[in-house]
Structure to design on (312 residues):
């Protein structure tokens, strides 16, 4: 058998056509589609082609069996002719199955993407409320509680950013099938917004931590001064003023002058705490210091008058 009448030659021509078509299907499976819908449409087109070529392969197999019976001396050559297209078909079908499974996961991934963006948006709103809502603090403990809350908000943001960063790899995988440029840009934008808010919260947290230390120190100082003033009051009320010597009165005046200066220093710290606007006004330490300062000034005035009487 020679030329076009040769069954091997005829089969070779059909196999070449089939191989070319299967290679085209493989190229289609390696393409990126603009959207998920278009990727699904392309996949349907691929399956239609694969189904058609599968039917062609079955026909070729039947034809090979018939030819092998008529030309047993060329049977092995005829069978070998089908090996490559069969392998190409199996590879293409496997790729299509993998693409089908992958596309099936994308809607869930995109739902997760929406959830991640929603979490970031909710966190940004919560962070805004912690930063800019009116605050009232009475003690260092209140300030510490607020600082602890800011730290928790900051910790949440770190978790959210890690989730967003991890999801970038998911979008990169999906990009092999369809374009995810918008989603990647949106994720990047959201991450930048969270990062910017993180810095703002961290700045305020540092101010609160510093304020806690300063207010705690002032509370301890004023508590000590309060006790000292109470002792001076007790001394002045327990003895006859005339029984106090001039030297003793001068010692009391010196002590009260020191207490007054310390209380005035506490007062001057009020504007140096760098708390949210007006927040320091509610701190009890300053009102207590003011009350104590007034008491000290009254005691100073009384003691000075008595001292002057002794000098007459």
């Amino acid at each position: 058998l020679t030329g076009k009448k040769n069954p091997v030659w005829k089969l070779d021509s059909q196999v070449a056509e089939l191989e070319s078509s299967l290679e085209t299907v493989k190229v289609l499976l390696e393409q990126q589609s603009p959207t998920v819908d278009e990727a699904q449409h392309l996949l349907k087109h691929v399956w239609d082609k694969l189904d058609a070529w599968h039917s062609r392969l079955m026909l070729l197999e039947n034809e090979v069996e018939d030819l092998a019976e008529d030309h047993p001396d060329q049977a092995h050559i005829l069978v070998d002719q089908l090996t490559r297209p069969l392998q190409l078909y199996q590879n293409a079908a496997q790729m299509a199955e993998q693409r089908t499974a992958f596309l099936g996961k994308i809607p869930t991934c995109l739902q997760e993407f929406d959830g991640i963006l929603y979490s970031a948006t909710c966190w940004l709103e919560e962070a805004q409320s912690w930063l800019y809502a009116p605050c009232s603090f009475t003690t260092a403990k209140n300030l510490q509680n607020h600082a602890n809350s800011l730290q928790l908000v900051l910790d949440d943001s770190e978790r959210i950013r890690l989730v967003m960063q991890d999801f970038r790899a998911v979008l990169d995988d999906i990009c092999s099938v369809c374009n995810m440029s918008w989603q990647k840009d949106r994720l990047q934008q959201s991450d930048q917004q969270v990062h910017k808010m993180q810095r703002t919260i961290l700045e305020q947290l540092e101010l609160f931590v510093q304020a806690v230390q300063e207010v705690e120190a002032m509370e301890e100082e004023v508590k000590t001064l309060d006790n000292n003033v109470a002792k001076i009051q007790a001394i002045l009320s327990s003895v006859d003023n005339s029984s106090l010597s001039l030297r003793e009165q001068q010692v009391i005046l010196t002590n009260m002058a020191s207490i007054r200066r310390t209380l005035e220093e506490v007062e001057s710290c009020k504007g140096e705490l760098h708390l949210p606007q007006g927040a320091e006004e509610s701190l009890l330490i300053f009102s207590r210091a003011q009350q104590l300062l007034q008491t000290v000034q009254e005691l100073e005035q009384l003691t000075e008058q008595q001292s002057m009487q002794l000098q007459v």
About this structure: The chain has a mean pLDDT of 85. The first helix runs from residue 7 to 29. Helices lie at 7-29, 36-70, 75-132, 140-174, 181-238, 246-268, 284-311. The chain has two domains: 7-105, 134-311.
